[in-house]
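ok new one. same drill as before - structure tokens go in, u give me an amino acid for every spot. 353 of them this time. try not to just spam alanines like last time pls lmao
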């Protein structure tokens, strides 16, 4: 599962990427791949509780794409790269700073979001038109006429939906239609997180996000405000200094923590944990996965030989303070193959080879 980080020049993408993955972007300006740790406070508390020899947090993959700009051909090549990702983080400049040039000549987050949205829509409309033209040319040849008619009808309705300014994120596909479009390179179906890069004096302006979210309510975007400049300062502080700095800013946690968790959930992912003195590890599975599928995340042999799962709920463990107390309270659960693993579950798989 991979997310793209994309936006105009001088909006803070390189800083944000460096903060997320801990590596420098490609100096030549091309694509850069990196892994970001999912900053989950539950994982950190489990590490503090078990003091293991090894810790393995959950990770998500990011690709930093080149700057968008005013050249259509260059943007088209960048959007081609979006076909290969599962979700998109669109970084939008909100912070005012006369010393930092904006490619459009002024800071206008609404305009920049609208332009990005319209380019994604145009890409999907162009694909639908070309695919319809191809189906029309193939009419009468050795093709499944019923299947072609179904696809043409679907493409026509998709095109009308897009022309009305709506993304395919909120187009109701049937199960049959999902199979038709499985290989389509549709961009407006991908989840989009609008990451607003704000200044320090805009950190507590909740209305800023609310106003934009209301204006683009029909686009089904996710929203978060960060200050890349402040997050960079936080990253250079010791834990003690960081806590004092956040308190002075009246902020509960760094925005990077909230951003990685938002990216994780936007991809439809959750974490379950395995714990012990040797290792505390966060495992990544899709939301709704059953216990045997969670076992497979650890190793295929565990799924094949699955007997049952021993499950502790994270809140229960934190409340009672130890596995023994949790067992004494009757909250240590035995679950079978039909158990849907919940986000934050602490799981031990029992299996036989």
């Amino acid at each position: 599962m991979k997310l793209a980080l994309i936006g105009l020049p001088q909006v803070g993408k390189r800083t944000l990427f460096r903060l997320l993955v801990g590596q420098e972007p490609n100096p030549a300006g091309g694509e850069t791949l990196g892994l970001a740790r999912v900053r989950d406070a539950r994982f950190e508390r489990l590490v503090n509780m078990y003091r293991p020899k090894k810790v393995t947090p959950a990770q998500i993959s990011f690709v930093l794409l080149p700057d968008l700009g005013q050249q259509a051909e260059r943007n088209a090549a960048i959007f081609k790269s979006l076909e290969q990702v599962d979700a998109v983080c669109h970084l939008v400049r909100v912070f005012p700073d006369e010393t930092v040039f904006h490619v459009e000549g002024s800071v206008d987050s609404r305009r920049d979001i609208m332009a990005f949205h319209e380019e994604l829509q145009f890409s999907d409309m162009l694909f639908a038109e070309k695919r319809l033209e191809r189906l029309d040319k193939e009419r009468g040849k050795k093709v499944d006429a019923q299947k072609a008619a179904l696809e043409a009808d679907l493409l026509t309705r998709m095109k009308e939906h897009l022309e009305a300014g709506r993304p395919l994120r909120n187009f109701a596909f049937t199960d049959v239609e999902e199979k038709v479009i499985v290989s389509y390179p549709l961009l407006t179906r991908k989840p989009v997180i609008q990451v607003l890069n704000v200044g320090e004096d805009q950190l507590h302006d909740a209305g800023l996000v609310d106003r934009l979210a209301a204006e683009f309510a029909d686009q089904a975007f996710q929203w978060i405000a960060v200050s890349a400049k402040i997050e960079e300062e936080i990253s250079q502080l010791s834990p003690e200094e960081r806590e004092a700095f956040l308190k002075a800013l009246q902020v509960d946690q760094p925005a990077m923590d909230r951003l990685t968790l938002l990216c994780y959930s936007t991809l439809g992912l959750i974490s379950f944990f395995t714990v012990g003195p040797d290792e505390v590890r966060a495992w990544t599975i899709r939301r709704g996965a059953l216990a045997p599928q969670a076992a497979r995340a650890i190793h295929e042999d565990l799924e094949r030989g699955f007997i049952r799962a021993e499950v502790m709920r994270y809140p229960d463990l934190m409340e009672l303070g130890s596995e023994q107390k949790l067992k004494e309270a009757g909250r240590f659960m035995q679950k079978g193959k039909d158990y849907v693993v919940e986000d934050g579950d602490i799981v031990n798989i029992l299996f036989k080879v």
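The domain at 118-180 is CATH 1.10.150.300 (DNA polymerase; domain 1). and btw The mean pLDDT is 93.
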